[in-house]
Amino acid sequence: MRIALLSTLFLNVVLGAAQPPEGYYSRAQGLTGYELKTELKEIITNGFNGQSYGDLIDLYQTSDNDDYYDDNQSFTILDMYSENPDGPDPYVYSFNDNCGNVSANEGGCYNREHLYPQGFFNQEDIMRNDAHHVVPTDGQVNGRRSNFPFGEVNNPTFTSRNGSKVGPSATPGFTQTVFEPIDEFKGDIARSLLYFATRYEDNWDDSSWDDKDSNVSDPRGGPNKNQWYEQWFIDLMVKWHNEDPVNQREQDRNNDVFEYQNNRNPFIDNPDWVNQIWTTTASTSDNSFARVNIFPNPSTGRFQIIDLQESVTISVFDVSGRMVKANQTLEGNAFEINGTGVYFVKLNSNLASKTFKVIVK
């Protein structure tokens, strides 16, 4: 339950974002798009010190204790599949209540959940033991999730006691079975999975992994290792990331995992990088398009595109991922956005695309 909400908000204001060591991301400064993603991959791979699978249970005592939602419960596990942010939890686990198998009923024990299922990467140790995407969850709900991708569900065939759901996908672009966590943890899960796509960028087409093209549940079906995931899944992860921002619990867990295996989740340290990578696919070889910019920014709602030398269409998204303009042909070099707030403007030409973050005052 959300007993510690006010203190968590206070800590967010006082402490700000999680603090990596000075210079940790220096090589990534000034980069955008997939060039940024690849540089982040190098940063979080260099010095990575993977631990054993069994060591994760010990880590959870510091990285995943439930002191954030249930005050003074630092001796119990924070389980995203059973946590009730707004009331009493349906059950709680001490650190010793772990088990290796699927529990017969909810509340029986917790085990280790691979947010990117380990069967997809043939249980290889480096990925299997990576704490940034392996979290403690109820054994029964973990089993119900199975290897289904994350998605959104309107008509569940199973609902856990905290409201997590299994059922046909209501997410545009995918119609098979998916698992939907509660809103409180959607951003956490999205950032973990985007970390995975970055850390293991070079394994996208690994022959020892499952056949991504024949396994409908594996979202690793993007056009290349840069995008990594299928488009519907990228769109959903960006949406969840924008709707559920980083909180103090994630920042602290990122620090704990850094102490444990000597690498960080860059999308917790710098959340803006998610949109800079996956809503920006500009071709670095197209120098004329690379010079395009938007002015003024911020604006009262009318923007001018600078150095535009070719025909483009324009799409506009709000911070929740909702499209407010859909692939409209741009007449002239100006456009308008109604309503104050932060938006992402995507320009598409025949050869490239480029996304800008703009503010309407």
TrEMBL record:
<keyword id="KW-0540">Nuclease</keyword>
<dbReference type="Pfam" id="PF04231">
    <property type="entry name" value="Endonuclease_1"/>
</dbReference>
<dbReference type="InterPro" id="IPR044925">
    <property type="entry name" value="His-Me_finger_sf"/>
</dbReference>
<protein>
    <recommendedName>
        <fullName>Secretion system C-terminal sorting domain-containing protein</fullName>
    </recommendedName>
</protein>
<dbReference type="Pfam" id="PF18962">
    <property type="entry name" value="Por_Secre_tail"/>
</dbReference>
<dbReference type="GO" id="GO:0004518">
    <property type="term" value="F:nuclease activity"/>
</dbReference>
<keyword id="KW-0378">Hydrolase</keyword>
<dbReference type="InterPro" id="IPR007346">
    <property type="entry name" value="Endonuclease-I"/>
</dbReference>
<dbReference type="GO" id="GO:0016787">
    <property type="term" value="F:hydrolase activity"/>
</dbReference>
<keyword id="KW-0732">Signal</keyword>
<comment type="similarity">
    <text>Belongs to the EndA/NucM nuclease family.</text>
</comment>
<feature type="domain" description="Secretion system C-terminal sorting">
    <location>
        <begin position="294"/>
        <end position="360"/>
    </location>
</feature>
<dbReference type="InterPro" id="IPR026444">
    <property type="entry name" value="Secre_tail"/>
</dbReference>
